[in-house]
Every structure is written in structure tokens, then in C-alpha cells.
């Protein structure tokens, strides 16, 4: 934590670590130029599906409308009931870009040395669905499980833009114990193993923290990649 003796804006060492069994945090993993390229690619896809049933929108859940805008790639995450589909009203879901497939492979390879349960997926992971989540500075995401995938393959999550507080909970319910992990632009977090079905959420976005050159002026993009089938 910063102290009175530290210079304003000072950055502190954030080593790569296993936050919990099967959960690896790789800080500053993706360089700014690659972040901006991914943002540009996602923005182009979002524009291409604007005005269609696959437009980037705030999904309506049983509990209310989400504050986060979501774009689905590969397979569409549908609600009421929750499921993955390959088209909506006859409109096919855009494919996952090659850059996202490359990101997933690199991420697991880099995390393998920190977690045996993640190492088991390196080289055989199939990126079948990707969600591009846009958080405005006031957006949050409640505690939830990623439980619509049949596969126990890990979820790969990249942050770009404003810092988001990632809350990792337990596998039983939405209550404590949990741990909060600040995810800065370029940070990667992967969760699998015994924490694959852990409740997790984003209780806060730290506004105006996006670094210049990341591709976003405000808010946060979170790219999550999943293997859906067994």
C-alpha cells in the first residue's frame, strides 16, 4: 500500500501469484499496444452487429437488468433461461477472433507454472465462447457462478481500462469468505480447479485509472474466454 513517503502515482511490485487453489493472477500481462489492438477489434465487431439481435446490450436477468454491456462471440450467452446458443433469431454469433484464441493459449501457458490444475489444460484448451464486458465507471457485477458451461475448463479473464476490483468468493454461496483483487489494465486472472465454480463479482470500478494508450478513455473492458463443451 502507498505511504506518506511514496511519490504520487508510484507503482509497486505486483508479483504473479496463485490467489487461491486454481486461481492465478498475472499482473501487467498484456502490453498497452496489444490492449489497444484488442479493444479496436472488439469495437469493430460490436459495430458490425449493432442493430441486430446480437448487439452489445445490458442483459435482462431474473433479478433485473445488468449495468454491464455484453458482446458475445463464438456462442451467445442467453438469459431466461441461461444457456449458450450459436444464433439469435437466425443471426449467427460472430466467431471468436484468432487474437482471442492466441490470448487463451498464451495465458494458460504462462499460468501453468503457478498452478498444477491450470497446467493440465495448457495445450488442449478450446476457446468456444468469449464475452466482451464493458463496465462504465458506475457499473458493478454481483456475486455469481459461471455455471452454464458443461466443461470444468478454467475461465480466462483479461482486464483493459479502468481498474476493476475482482471479488473471488467461495463455491458454496455469495457470502464471505472472499478476497478482493485489484485488476489493472493488462492484468490477467484465470480461475479453474477447485475454484472453477466459485462465486465472484466486481463490486467497484476505480474511475479515471485507465492508462493512456490502452484503447479506452473511460470505463473497463473485461474479456472472458470459456470452453463450453466437455
Estimate percent helicity.
Answer: 10-25%
The low-pLDDT segments are: none
Instruction: Estimate what percentage of residues fall within beta strands.
Output: 25-35%
Number of helices: 3
- Report the top-level CATH class: Mainly Beta
Secondary structure tally: strands: 17
Report strand order across the widest sheet: 1-2-15-12-17-10-5
The CATH architecture would be Sandwich
CATH fold-level label: Jelly Rolls
Biggest sheet details: 7 strands, antiparallel
Calculate the mean pLDDT score and round it. Answer: 95
Shape estimate: globular
* CATH H-level superfamily: Alpha-ketoglutarate-dependent dioxygenase AlkB-like
Cofactor: Fe(2+)
Domain Fe2OG dioxygenase: 126-229
GO molecular function, one term: oxidative RNA demethylase activity
Binding site for Fe cation: 144, 146, 200
Q: Care to describe what's here?
A:
The chain is of the alpha+beta class and 230 residues long. It has a single domain, classed as Jelly Rolls. It has three helices and 17 strands. The strands form five sheets. Strands 1-2-15-12-17-10-5 form a seven-stranded antiparallel β-sheet, with helices on one face. Strands 11-16-13-14 form a four-stranded antiparallel β-sheet, with no helix packed on it. The chain has a two-stranded antiparallel ribbon with strand order 3-4. A hairpin with a 2-residue loop joins strand 1 and strand 2. The protein is globular. Its cofactor is Fe(2+). It holds the Pfam family 2OG-FeII_Oxy_2. One of its GO terms (cellular component) is cytoplasm. GO terms for molecular function: broad specificity oxidative DNA demethylase activity; ferrous iron binding; oxidative RNA demethylase activity. This is Alpha-ketoglutarate-dependent dioxygenase AlkB.
Amino acid at each position: 500500500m502507498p505511504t506518506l513517503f511514496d511519490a504520487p502515482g508510484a507503482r509497486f511490485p505486483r508479483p504473479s501469484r496463485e490467489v487461491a487453489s486454481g486461481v492465478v493472477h498475472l499482473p501487467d500481462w498484456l502490453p498497452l499496444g496489444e490492449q489497444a489492438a484488442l479493444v479496436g477489434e472488439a469495437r469493430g465487431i460490436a459495430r458490425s452487429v449493432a442493430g441486430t439481435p446480437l448487439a452489445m446490450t445490458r442483459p435482462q436477468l431474473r433479478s433485473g437488468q445488468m449495468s454491464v454491456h455484453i458482446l458475445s462471440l463464438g456462442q451467445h450467452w442467453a438469459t431466461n433461461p441461461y444457456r449458450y446458443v450459436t444464433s439469435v433469431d437466425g443471426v449467427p454469433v460472430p466467431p471468436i477472433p484468432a487474437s482471442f484464441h492466441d490470448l487463451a493459449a498464451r495465458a494458460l501457458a504462462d499460468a501453468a507454472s503457478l498452478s498444477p490444475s491450470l497446467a493440465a489444460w495448457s495445450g488442449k484448451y478450446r476457446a468456444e465462447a468469449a464475452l466482451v464486458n464493458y463496465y462504465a465507471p458506475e457499473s458493478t457485477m454481483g456475486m455469481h457462478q459461471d455455471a452454464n458451461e458443461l466443461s470444468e475448463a478454467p475461465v480466462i479473464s483479461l482486464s483493459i481500462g479502468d481498474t476493476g476490483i475482482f471479488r473471488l468468493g467461495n463455491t458454496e454461496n455469495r457470502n464471505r469468505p472472499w478476497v478482493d483483487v485489484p485488476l489493472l489494465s493488462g492484468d490477467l486472472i484465470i480461475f479453474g480447479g477447485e475454484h472453477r465454480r466459485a462465486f465472484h463479482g466486481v463490486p467497484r470500478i476505480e474511475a479515471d485509472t485507465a492508462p493512456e494508450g490502452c484503447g479506452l478513455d473511460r470505463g473497463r473492458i473485461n474479456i472472458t474466454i470459456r470452453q463450453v463443451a466437455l
